[in-house]
Amino acid sequence: MPIVVSRRGAACIAWSLVAVAFAGSTAGNAQSAIEQFYKGKTIDLIIGYPPGGSNDVFARFLARHMPKYIPGQPNIVTRNMPGGGSLLAANFMYSIAPKDGTVLAIIAPTAPLDAKLGNPAAKYQPEKFNWIGRTGTAANPLMVWHTQPYKSWKDALGQEITLSATGTGSTVSVYPTVFNNLMKTKFKLVMGYKGSGEAMLAMERGETAGHSTAFEAVKTQHPDWITQGKIRFLLQFALTRHPEMPDVPTAIEAAETDEQRAIFRAVLNATEIGKPFFTTPGVPPERVEALRRAFDKMTADAEFIAEFERARVELNPMSGEKLQKLVEELVAISPDLVEKVKANYGG
Length: 347
Fold this sequence. Notes:
CATH architecture of the largest domain: 3-Layer(aba) Sandwich
Number of helices: 14
Structural class: alpha/beta
Strand order of the largest sheet: 2-1-3-10-4-11
Number of domains: 2
């Protein structure tokens, strides 16, 4: 039986087809515009840390693999910009870097909290950055050299334990400071080391008893320290126990009151922010979208995954949209909790 379509119905179908064609054309034009913008360009990747650490290594992985997924396939070159626990790099991204999608960065995961707490050195609003994605979480164990007599974090309740540290805003300094303030331990920070690589060597040389840094930093730079028992983990700064440190308690487990746990959770939100990559405020939305999708494709790429496997570190990516929401949730914590965190932070 033949299908009969009225003139009005035919007109509606025709307009629908035109609309579909127009939408496809618009999307194609947008993709073409992004490709034309990035073609032949170089993206700067700002690393808020000295060379050689785990964040530096992860950034260089990204610089090698992400370009092929960005329309126009621009080059990505890395630039180390350490200082102030990576706040120097954050400030640069907020106020100085071009707002066009040609600059990416990785900074300390505590940087959003620094701004929320009103750190005068944090001259940026983290929720206004365009967050591109996270390569992994940032479990941060506190360790001592195996020749030291300390067996658990409780040993620091009655005696001073020296820890090598870098800048005041970095996780290697912030986490032990918060723990000292809440739990009355006596971890003494010896400041001024240029990155965790140098701080770990100071521990090995006996300049300090220990150090607190990202688990990935230990695994990438000194895997033999773990396999040969050259270090002893006393505590881990994380929301949950890392699967490779199942017998090491977290700071939250050590907490004795609900208030202590709430403060630790706010501070250790940074472990979920992890290894975060972002671009500046003000980047056109279509370019932010292109960078986020390129990041997602890169983290599913077999060659990129192989880089992490060779480095013996965990790849646990998070999309830019979820990372953006995580930062926004941190910025939205209650004023009452902000004051309690601020009183114990010391960053």
